[in-house]
Amino acid sequence: MTNTRKFWTLRYIIINATYFAVYSGIHAYASVFLLEKGFSNTLIGITLALANILSVIFQPFIAGLIDKQGKLTNRNVSMASTALLLIGSVLLLLIKSGIAVIFIIFALIYMVQMVYQPIITAMYFEYEAAGCHIYYGLARGLGSAGFAVTSFFTGRAIGKFGVTILMILDIIFLTIALIVLYFFKKPKVETPKAEKNEVAHNNLFSFIKTFPGFMLFVLAAVCFFFAHNAINDYMIQIITPLGGTEAQMGTAVFIAALLELPTMALIDKIMKKISVKNLLLISATAFLIKTLLMLLAPNMVIVYISQAMQMFAYAVFIPAGAYFVNQTMARLDQVKGQAYINCSITLGGVFSSLVCGRLLDIKGPHFMLIVSLAVTAIGLVIAFFALKVVAISRKTTLK
User: Least C-beta-crowded within 10 Å: which of 137, 296, 382, 390?
Assistant: First the structure.
């Protein structure tokens, strides 16, 4: 690795690592934080659903503005998002009571962080095109490692210091992120002009008509992330009947996130032997197996094994999905493509929050996981046909 590449990669690693460290506090420990503040499972579900719905609306909108290549750049949006998250975390640290106020602030910062996520990925492709060579897989994998380490120690820290430690850690990581982003300036290079026949499809219906297979795959991914979000958002409720604690929840999250690192770090080499299409199908199958193991788990050992499937599920999906966008669409649609991939995660969270919070209160975690497994199986079937449509579309375009 050259010194220049090390320099760009190191800073991009810090951006990813701090983002996912904060993601741990806001997302992985959302239930723990909100339960402590007096929220019911149903109200937690409503809070997360609202946040996800808002992010689904704003992600393509912001992406469309960035794709126009004006003053609203990936870096500027990243800095603004980080600043908003920092303000929200400070407010949640200072506010000791008031469910309505906490509901609003938490929903907003949850939403902002989801809007911000695809922009980090789009920023990599933008900087790479400008000659700022970055090892994406390594950086993204170390981002997951940041999530893993934070989650592991946070679970234990909550037991000693209470849930306020979540916001304290978020404030520290967000401050570091804001400083690094400020100095993460792309060199001034002439941006290649769009080809004469290249058109930005900012309208949703135009985008669907142009990329039907891609959007069908997004629908499939919504199904995968229904179960993925159900497990992440309600992990404490799932493991409590098995004798699990917040500390063991931290271990479970740590295992899943840490095992993402080797897969993501090696993704460039893996893609030389396995196509992006096949990697996405492998990922879909792994999501199914992970949910099945969680459903059948009689103890924490099987929960940990289920979490280990993350290295074939989420760890494959994220980089493969990013490259899938890059291979499927032209430059003027790529930020939107990344946004729609992230929207699949978000929409999965919407339906998961709306349905699973209620299922937990009425039927319990076992039935919630049965529903999640069925939804994931449907997603696997849709993904298979979606990737067939993409392959056929490419052949037609080439002709």
Answer: 296
Q: At what angle do helices 246-258 and 300-308 cross, to 10 degrees?
A: 30
For residue 130, what is the DSSP state? T
Say which CATH class 3-185+201-398 falls into: mainly alpha
pLDDT per position as a tens digit, 104-136: 999 999 999 888 888 888 888 888 888 888 888
In angstroms, the Cα distances linking 293 to 232, 249, 275, 288 are 14, 16, 27, 9
Structure tokens at 316: 């494959």
Residue 122 CB-density burial (10 A; 0-12 exposed, 13-18 middle, 19+ buried): buried
User: Tokens at residue 96, please?
Assistant: 């000791």
Domain coordinates of the chain in residue numbers? 3-185+201-398
Give 121's Cβ-side CA count (13 Å radius): 27
> Is residue 209 packed enough to be buried (19+ CB in 10 Å), middle (13-18) or exposed (0-12)?
exposed
pLDDT digit string, tens, across residues 215-270:
999 999 999 999 998 998 788 889 988 888 878 888 888 888 788 888 888 888 89
